[in-house]
Amino acid sequence: MRTCKTCGACKPLYICIHWGFCRKKQLYCTESETLTEGGATCAAWRKSERGYDLSEARFDEIERDLNDLYEHLKDL
Question: Do 4 and 36 form a contact (C-beta atoms < 8 A)?
Answer without folding.
Answer: yes
